[in-house]
Amino acid sequence: MPAMVEELRAAAEAEPHFLVVTYPAQGHINPVRHLARRLLRATGARVTVSTAVSAFRKMFPGEDDDAAAEGHRDAAGVWHVPYSDGYDAGFDRAVHDHTHYLSQVKLVGSRTLSAVIARLRDAGRPVTLVVYTLLLSWVANVARGHGVPAALYWIQPATVLAAYLHFFRGTDGVDKAIAAAGGDPSAAVSLPGLPPLRIRDLPSFITATSENDPYAFVADMF
Predict the structure, then answer these.
(1) CA torsion through residues 6, 46, 154, 56, sign
(2) pLDDT digits (tens, 9 = 90+) for 138-170
């Protein structure tokens, strides 16, 4: 407890430092980079983006691992530091097991991201707010472990958020309507407060009818 109190006090006294953590996919990384640049321009605060090693290597192919650990500053002034998700060479659906991947992302990712936050603190650049994208809910627990507040950065349309809410809550019949559709993409489905939709309009993973569906594993990341 005393250690956390000290971390909270240090964070309160520190200059603002945003750590934006993103899933290693282009559809997540691009919005995060835009957010990071806007935060930098609007606040003048230090902004660090952290994604998995596999994505970091594609973004900055000239960086070796030692240099990457110290951070890469891009032309806009945003810093980039990787964390490891246990799949540093990348995840290949044709080769790797989804279940193992999900467990490793959380297990290894939690440990290595915690190390990133600690390293930044020890270097005199303590993180004052952690922002994370979809599929990385475990990041909030890592931030709390360091006494740092965390916030989700929603990178999809509000309609998609509504679809997730009603599907996972399971009280509006949306999940049952999807199951009853039996995979028919033209089947109608109603979401409270939204115009009539069809199954094909919904996110792929919530309409998956088989565990073998290539997107079925995504539901386990929520």
Answers:
(1) negative
(2) 999 999 999 999 999 999 999 999 988 888 887
Residues 146 and 10 sit within 8 Å (Cβ to Cβ): no
What is the spatial distance between Cα 132 and Cα 78, in angstroms, rounded to a whole number?
16
Task: Report the domain count for the chain.
Answer: 2
- Give bridge partners of residue 52 from the DSSP assignment: 83
Phi-psi region of 44 (alpha: psi -120 to 50; beta: other; left: phi over 0): left
Q: Residue 77: helix, strand or coil by DSSP?
A: coil
Burial of 138 (0-12, 13-18, 19+ CB in 10 A): middle
Are residues 180 and 136 both part of a single domain?
no
Q: Please say which residue of 125, 152, 179 terminates a domain.
A: 152
Whether pTM exceeds 0.85: no
Report the catalytic residues: 28
Tokens for 184, please give them.
């028919």
pLDDT value for 126: 98
Let me know whether 120 and 207 are in one domain. no
**Cβ atoms within 10 Å, residue 143:** 23
